[in-house]
Amino acid sequence: MERIQIALTKGRLLDETISIFEKVGIDCSELRQQGRKLIFQSNTYNISFILVKAADVLTYVEHGVADIGVVGNDLLLENEKECYEMLDLNIGRCKFCVASIDSYEQNTSRRKTIATKYPTVASTYFRQKGEEVDIIKIEGSVEIAPLLGLADAVVDIVETGRTLRENGLVVLEEMYDISARLIVNKASLKMKKEATFRIIDSIEKYVSTKV
Ligand code: PRP
């Protein structure tokens, strides 16, 4: 049976992602035990899992090292990658939002500065609104940028809203919905058609019962 490598991300999404694979009958026992390992065998079909950073899921899938990946569409919106987005897994739901401090006066004619980990998403959004902004790319803890005067506002992911709340920020605008997507390498879909579609179809069936 053809070998299928699946790239997953450590972090919030992992548990729910593993549950989906288990629900469609794919053994994830080694993956469940984790520890510090990064490559895991499944006893189902000829599947192995790798655990990488979210952005690297795209890279591994694009290069065909992983046939299938699970990643938030925040990264698909930010990075132009050569792969097929096959399914919305309906997990990891959150939103891209513009946020700032409560007292921020939005409607000035002054050009805004936006701090974000997602410069492409932010610039596309404001361009489509016809608003010119300056974007500052930062790598994390985005929420402190307006507090410290680095930026007027941030573009970031909001899930529960807790990070914003605890840092005294509020949502100014909701931008895009985010959820986890199943992506597939283009060549794998042709060359390993049967093996990839067996997985995709079973997950699609399972996910559609949950909507
Ligand atoms: C995201 C985002 C916020 C937080 C929002 O960061 O950048 O900081 O989650 O979640 P909340 O609305 O539930 O508080 P993440 O935890 O993914 O880590 P990162 O900053 O390392 O990307």
UniProtKB/TrEMBL annotation:
Q: Which InterPro entries has this protein been placed in?
A: ATP_PRibTrfase_cat, ATP_PRibTrfase_CS, ATP_PRibTrfase_HisG, ATP_PRibTrfase_HisG_short
Q: Which UniProt keywords apply?
A: Amino-acid biosynthesis, ATP-binding, Cytoplasm, Glycosyltransferase, Histidine biosynthesis, Nucleotide-binding, Transferase
Q: Name one GO molecular function term.
A: ATP binding
Q: Where in the cell is it found?
A: Cytoplasm
All residue ranges annotated as the ATP phosphoribosyltransferase catalytic domain in the record: 53-204
Reaction(s) the record says it catalyses: 1-(5-phospho-beta-D-ribosyl)-ATP + diphosphate = 5-phospho-alpha-D-ribose 1-diphosphate + ATP
- GO terms (BP aspect): L-histidine biosynthetic process
**Keyword Cytoplasm listed:** yes
What is the stated purpose of this protein?
Answer: Catalyzes the condensation of ATP and 5-phosphoribose 1-diphosphate to form N'-(5'-phosphoribosyl)-ATP (PR-ATP). Has a crucial role in the pathway because the rate of histidine biosynthesis seems to be controlled primarily by regulation of HisG enzymatic activity.
Assembly and oligomerization:
Heteromultimer composed of HisG and HisZ subunits.
What domain notes does the record hold? Answer: Lacks the C-terminal regulatory region which is replaced by HisZ.
Q: What is this protein called?
A: ATP phosphoribosyltransferase
From which source organism is this entry? Priestia taiwanensis
Q: Which gene encodes it?
A: hisG
